[in-house]
Write a structure and sequence with these properties.
336 residues, alpha+beta, Immunoglobulin-like, 4-stranded antiparallel β-sheet, 3-stranded mixed β-sheet, 10 strands, flat
């Protein structure tokens, strides 16, 4: 993740957002569509719907390619190069004919959890002319999008530190209370604190009896069962399935082993698995293999077969089943 001074980053972020929007508006203007200037066979651009956001906001990042119909185009999977953002969803639009040219788009929905300045790196799009009469294809050519600068700000106001400052009152003389007053006030204060603590513990115990926490493995089993309804004949549904099943296993690891797996990358999870208690070495290897395999489909654009999908599902189900706590352990966790 690249960083730069906040002021410069803010200005470049606004410029990076405004220029594609201006170019896009001009490109679709009726007055400019009729221009006789020749266009490149393949034109690429990257854009976001906002260059300045706050923590928790959803941003849509798009990679757009306008090409001549006689050219073959490959848009790479850029998810693995996106740093500093959580990828919430991905998708790809069907090719659309726009004035004799073909438009293709790949999009990502991103969320930033930390304040800071971020850079979405350039994306290299490959293209080459389609040979006529089944001839030999020409060499691949590369077009590169520009970097996109994004500023993520806090939702808190900038002047919050001085928002509640009031004018100081004049000093007044404070007389010490008699000793017996101090003693009585101390005893009463301790008694009130003890009563409040007793009431809180009783209420917490009663709520725990009425609403026991749902164990992490039960939540995982329910979510995995819901994923069986996925339409595996659709490639986008399959990729969404891999994102979802990865999140289910990460949430289970977080709830079962107290490892913040939903906010860590695969490399960070693997690096921390050695310190996880109650995780057998065999299941440690199973989890690592599962995370790496799902990342290949999520970010490396690997197309899984039906056997791969079934094996991924069985890996997730088997891992949860093999590492779920024994009934006695579940009762202890609920009682705690």
């Amino acid at each position: 993740m690249a960083r730069m001074p906040r002021g410069l980053q803010y200005g470049r972020a606004l410029l990076a957002w405004a220029i594609p929007a201006l170019v896009l508006g001009c490109a679709e203007s009726p007055a400019l569509v009729e221009s006789d200037e020749p266009r490149d066979p393949v034109e690429v651009e990257a854009m976001v719907d906002r260059a300045v956001a706050t923590t928790g906001d959803l941003l849509t990042y798009r990679i757009r390619v306008d090409s001549d119909p006689t050219w073959e185009v490959e848009i790479p999977e850029a998810g693995a190069d996106i740093a500093g953002f959580r990828i919430v969803d991905v998708g790809q639009e069907d090719p659309v004919d726009r004035g004799g040219r073909v438009r293709r788009e790949r999009w990502y929905q991103l969320r930033a959890d930390l304040v800071g300045s971020y850079v979405l790196p350039p994306v290299e799009v490959r293209s080459r002319p389609i040979p006529a009469n089944d001839g030999e294809p020409g060499p691949w050519q590369t077009q590169v999008t520009s970097e996109i600068f994004i500023e993520v700000e806090s939702v808190l106001p900038s002047d919050i530190e001085g928002a509640d400052i009031r004018q100081l009152k004049p000093l007044r003389e404070v007389r010490a209370s008699p000793p017996w007053v101090v003693i009585v006030a101390t005893v009463l204060g301790i008694a009130l604190l003890a009563a409040a603590l007793f009431w809180y513990l009783r209420r917490r115990a009663s709520q725990a009896d009425l609403e026991p926490a749902i164990p992490a493995h039960e939540l995982a089993f329910e979510a995995l069962n819901g994923l069986r309804k996925t339409d595996f004949s659709d490639s986008e549904s399959v990729r969404r399935f891999y994102f979802q099943i990865s999140e289910v296993v990460r949430a289970y690891v977080e709830g079962r082993f107290r490892l913040n797996a939903t906010d860590l990358t695969t490399e960070e999870i693997v690096a921390n698995l050695g310190s996880v208690e109650d995780l057998p070495a065999k299941q440690n290897q199973v989890l690592q293999g599962f995370l790496i395999d799902t990342d290949q489909v999520k970010f490396a654009h690997r197309q899984p077969t039906s056997e791969d999908i079934e094996e991924t599902y069985e890996q997730a189900l088997g891992f949860v089943e093999a590492t779920r706590p024994l009934p006695a352990m579940v009762e202890e966790e609920q009682a705690a």
